[in-house]
Amino acid sequence: MHDEYRTVAREGVHEIEINKSRFICALAPAATEEEAQAFVARIRKEHPTARHNCWAYVIGADGSVQKASDDGEPGGTAGVPMLQMLVRRETRYVVAVVTRYFGGIKLGAGGLIRAYGGVVGEALDTLGTITRRRFRLATVTVDHQRAGKLENELRATGREVRNVTYGTGVSIEIGLPEADVETFRSWLADSTAGTARLELGGEAYGDV
Q: CB atoms < 10 A from the CB of 110, how many?
């Protein structure tokens, strides 16, 4: 399992014009294939008169799901170069839709490949990418007296505090890099004089 991956920082749009044809690239993060397909459907609805809405997406931290569509453009001239750009830039959990409004001048296969791949690359540059790292979720349970000080110390040492729940004790959910678990266990015992309880949960990805 990959410890980190790169994805697009936010949803957004970037447009270029080549020989009077408009190429509008909509990019978005997508956690699942269903999310990616829903984004494609949404962009299609926004551009009902466009001649083509070509798309590509990469899902999975290891890029295990990769799909693309030329949507009526000559085979291999749109979806594939879009997908290749996403893969070359090592982005994951990302979907791109390029809407083309034809300007009357044919670009040829090479021109289309450069246009579709190029607008995706420019969109990634414009919107920016972020790196997300794999964490082990963990819950620290401590008494109310120590909770405030401990939470402050966790934040001060750069720990990702995800949630705080108040009950008979205080439960603080954090994200830990796998390699830090044992070091953190020792630190926690020292910081709370052994009164805190640490429970390890599943895994998630968070921003670096």
A: 9
